[in-house]
UniProtKB/TrEMBL annotation:
InterPro entries: Bact_Lucif_Oxidored (IPR050766), CmoO-like (IPR019949), Luciferase-like_dom (IPR011251), Luciferase-like_sf (IPR036661). This is LLM class flavin-dependent oxidoreductase. To bacterial alkanal monooxygenase alpha and beta chains. One of its GO terms (molecular function) is oxidoreductase activity, acting on paired donors, with incorporation or reduction of molecular oxygen. It holds the Pfam family Bac_luciferase. It comes from the Bacteria. GO terms for cellular component: cytosol. Residues 7-305 form the Luciferase-like domain.
Length: 331
C-alpha cells in the first residue's frame, strides 16, 4: 500500500465553557504536535460569524503557528478570495513567505466561509468583491506571487521565494479551474455529502490538467475528518460533538462545540436522525488501525497524492491523540 503524506486542517474550534483565546492556543498546540510527528502541512480555515470557529483571519494565525513550529509547512485551507482584494492577499502571503521561506502555502477557495449576510458585511459595497470575478482575481494573485508576473504592482519589494498556491473546492468547477491553471487541487471531502462527487472532481482535474510553471503534473489532495482512539466505542463517543455541530449548522442553532457527555445526552428527533444520516461529520472514527484502513482504501480508490486530516473535537487533546495514533500506524 502506497502511504502518501499526511497533513492537518484546523478551524480553531471554540468549545462550550471556553473562549477564542483558548481555541487559538489549542490550534498552536495542535500544530506543534503535527510538526513533531512529521505531518507535511498544517492548514487553517477561514470562517466568519460562527460561535464554534475562531479561525477568522488565516494570515494572522498562520504567522503565529509558523513562529511556534520549525519544519512543517503552514498555510490557509483556505483564504476565501471573494472576501478580499487580491493585492491584499498577495501582500499578506508574500510577507509570510519572507518571514518563513519555503514553509508557506496559500490555499484559495471560492465559497464565502459564512452566511450571505456576513459575506455582505465583509465585502461592503465593493463592486470588485464578487464570486463572478473569482477567476480574474485568482489570476491576479498568481501573477503577484510569481517571479515572472510582469506587473507594475509587486506584492513585496524583493522576493526570493514564493508561497505554494493550491485551489480548494468541493465541486467540479474548482477541479476544472485548477486543472486549467496547472495548480495543485484539494477536494474538501470532509464536508462533502456524497462519496462519488470526489471521484468525479478528481477525474476532471486529471483529465484537464495543463502543466504550468508552478506544477508539471496533477497533484491532488483530499481532506477527511477522522478521530482515532483506543477503542471503536471510545472514538464514536468522542465523535459525538462533531455530529451535533454538523446538525446545528444545518438547523441554524449555532453554538460552541459541546462536550462528548453533552452530545451523548442530546435527545434526537426522527428528523434529527434523518438529517445526521445525510450530513458529513466525523467520517472515520475508530481505532488507529481501523482509521488507517479506511484512509488506505480512500487513497487506493482516488489515487490522491496527499491526505489532509480534519476533525471537530471538543478537546484539543483528542485531536493530538488522533494524530499520534494515526502517525504511528501510518509509518
Amino acid at each position: 500500500m502506497v502511504r502518501v503524506p499526511l497533513s492537518v486542517l484546523d478551524l480553531a474550534t471554540v468549545r462550550a465553557g471556553h473562549d477564542s483565546a483558548d481555541a487559538l492556543r489549542g490550534t498552536i498546540e495542535l500544530a506543534r504536535t503535527a510538526d513533531d510527528l512529521g505531518y507535511a502541512r498544517f492548514w487553517i480555515a477561514e470562517h466568519h460569524n460562527m460561535p464554534a470557529v475562531a479561525a477568522t483571519s488565516p494570515p494572522v494565525l498562520i504567522a503565529a503557528v509558523a513562529a511556534q513550529t520549525s519544519r512543517i509547512r503552514v498555510g490557509s485551507g483556505g483564504v476565501m478570495l471573494p472576501n478580499h482584494m487580491p493585492f491584499v492577499v498577495a501582500e499578506q502571503f508574500a510577507m509570510l513567505e519572507a518571514l518563513h521561506p519555503g514553509r508557506i502555502d496559500l490555499g484559495i477557495g471560492r465559497a464565502p466561509g459564512t452566511d450571505q449576510v456576513t459575506a455582505a458585511a465583509l465585502r461592503g459595497v465593493s463592486p470588485y468583491l464578487t464570486v463572478e470575478q473569482f477567476p480574474d482575481h485568482l489570476d491576479t494573485v498568481l501573477a503577484l506571487l510569481s517571479a515572472d508576473g510582469g506587473q507594475r504592482l509587486r506584492a513585496t519589494p524583493a522576493a526570493t521565494s514564493y508561497p505554494q498556491v493550491f485551489l480548494l473546492g468541493s465541486s467540479t468547477y474548482s477541479a476544472q479551474l485548477a486543472a486549467a491553471l496547472g495548480l495543485p487541487f484539494c477536494y474538501a471531502y470532509h464536508f462533502a455529502t456524497g462519496g462519488s462527487a470526489v471521484d468525479a472532481a478528481l477525474q476532471l482535474y486529471r483529465q484537464g490538467f495543463r502543466p504550468s510553471t508552478r506544477l508539471d503534473r496533477p497533484y491532488a489532495m483530499v481532506s477527511v475528518s477522522a478521530i482515532a482512539a483506543q477503542t471503536t466505542a471510545e472514538a464514536d463517543y468522542l465523535a459525538g460533538p462533531s455530529r451535533i455541530m454538523a446538525l446545528s449548522l444545518r438547523t441554524g442553532k449555532l453554538g460552541p462545540i459541546v462536550s462528548p457527555e453533552t452530545a451523548a445526552a442530546v435527545e434526537l428527533t426522527d428528523l434529527d436522525r434523518e438529517l445526521l444520516a445525510q450530513l458529513p461529520a466525523t467520517q472515520y472514527a475508530g481505532t488507529a488501525e481501523e482509521v488507517v484502513a479506511a484512509l488506505d482504501a480512500l487513497v487506493e480508490r482516488t489515487g490522491v497524492d496527499e491526505l489532509m486530516l480534519a476533525g471537530a473535537a471538543y478537546d484539543v487533546a483528542t485531536r493530538q491523540e488522533t494524530l499520534a495514533r494515526i502517525a504511528k500506524v501510518w509509518t
